[in-house]
Amino acid sequence: MAGTLARPGARAVSVPIVRTLAPSDVDALRLPGTAGAQTTRRLLERNPGRSVWVPETLEYALVGAWRNRREIACVEDLVAVRHLEPLLHAAVERCAAQGDALLLAIELDVPRSPSRFERAGLELLEEVITYEAEIGRGPWSASSRVRAIRVDADDASSVDLVTEMDQGAFPWLWRNSRAEFDVYLRMPGVEVAVIEADDEPVAYFGMTLFSGWGHLDRIAVAPRAQGRGYGLEALGLAVEAMRQRGARRAGLSTQRTNLRSQRLYERFGFRRTSDHDYRLFGAWCRPDLRAPE
């Protein structure tokens, strides 16, 4: 097959007919409500040729784009009781044919060992862990060398700057595209700010505000400015912005392997919570991009 999804040991199972799922097939899936069918059709129209289904059993895998990244596909909905492996294999083949580099699947529920995705042959790529902190105490005293400047979604140069910092600071899988920022900046409750030191941009943060609490979505220090304490400054300014807007609690997430970020958050007073941890599995459609920089 075109992808690198490795089949587990051979087993005597029936091989179903797996077809590419098209918008005209959606009514046959018996999705609940009109809104669900309309949403599914829009996903299929935006990401043609990637989603698959088994007409005999009505099992399906809906595949969209990961963080608005055209080179990374992601399973957005999966109904598979009997034919998980054939569905995922077919989805990888379709994504490879469309030129995608990687197909992802997210396990949000309590991790099972082994995961159903592991049993189907996907590789565990990342484990994302979560932190929380109470932030109702006194204000954060930022140093005089830094200031936060809010990014306007319509300011193209500022959005370009944030995109450049993000892509320079994060590994390939976690980089945000410009298209992702265009969507993210217009979401309800979202604020993004650039951190300047001596009138030079050195970092940025993105957060989402809810009723009584906030979530730190992104924080990054430009590569040329790393190692000079700007990460802690940016974190403090982000938490203070949440507090000023009425938040009393803050949450965030990071990769389990990112020990540097964990030390930063713990130094600030964030503590581990496993309530919203998740695991990210994947199958490489193009072996030559398996470990891109």
Explain this structure to me?
The protein has 293 residues and is an alpha+beta fold. It has 2 domains: 19-127 and 280-289, 3-Layer(aba) Sandwich (Aminopeptidase), CATH 3.40.630; 136-247, Gcn5-related N-acetyltransferase (GNAT) (Aminopeptidase). The chain is built from 7 helices and 12 strands. The protein has helices at residues 33-46, 84-97, 116-119, 156-169, 178-184, 230-244, 259-268; strands spanning 19-20, 52-54, 59-66, 69-79, 102-107, 123-134, 146-150, 190-197, 200-209, 213-221, 249-255, 271-284. A 12-stranded mixed β-sheet has the order 1-2-3-4-5-12-6-11-10-9-8-7, sandwiched between helices.
CATH structural fold name of the largest domain? Aminopeptidase
Strand content: 25-35%
Order of helices and strands: EHEEEHEHEEHHEEEHEHE
Unreliable sequence segments: none
Short description:
Helices cover 27% and strands 32% of the residues.
Layout of helices and strands:
Elements: E1 19-20, H1 33-46, E2 52-54, E3 59-66, E4 69-79, H2 84-97, E5 102-107, H3 116-119, E6 123-134, E7 146-150, H4 156-169, H5 178-184, E8 190-197, E9 200-209, E10 213-221, H6 230-244, E11 249-255, H7 259-268, E12 271-284
Parallel strand pairs: 4-5, 10-11
Antiparallel strand pairs: 1-2, 2-3, 3-4, 5-12, 6-11, 6-12, 7-8, 8-9, 9-10
